[in-house]
Amino acid sequence: MQRYHFCEIDLAAIRHNVGVMKSHIAGGAGQVYYLTARTTQRQAALEAGADMLAVAIPEEGIELREAGIAAPILVLGGIEESAAEAVVQNDLTQVVFDERRIRALAQAGQKLGRCVKVHLKLDTGMNRIGVRTAEEAQALTRLIDSLPGVALTGCFT
Known about the structure:
There is one protein chain. α1 crosses α2. By secondary structure, the protein is of the alpha/beta class.
C-alpha cells in the first residue's frame, strides 16, 4: 500500500511571517532563524529578512552551501566529533552543549585556520539536548572563551 502526501506552501505567508517576527525584534534584540526543508521556502525567508537559516544536521547545511546559499546557517542538532571539520569547512554555526564537542570544534578550527561559530543550547524543560543549570552554562562559556578556534555567537532555548 502506498501513501501519497501533499503539502501546499504559501511563500507569501512565509515572507509575511518573517517580516512580522523581524518587526518584533527591532533594534537588534535578536535574530530571526528559519528552519525548513525546501529551497524555495528558504529563499523566501531570506528575501523577507531572515537573519539565518537553521538545519537539523550538518549535511543539510553543506547541501545549502553547495547550492550557493551564503547566509549564516545554524545546525540545531548535536554532532559527532568526526563532523567537526565539515562544520568548520562549510562555515556552519554549530549548536553546542558539552565539552567534548566544543573541544572537537576548536581543534578543527585551529587545524583549518578558521574560527568556528557556536550557539550554546539551553535546556529549559524538553530534556533532549542542552545545558540544564546556570553552572553548566557558565562552565561551557568559560571553556569556549578560553579556546582558540571557537567563538560563542549566541545561545537559545
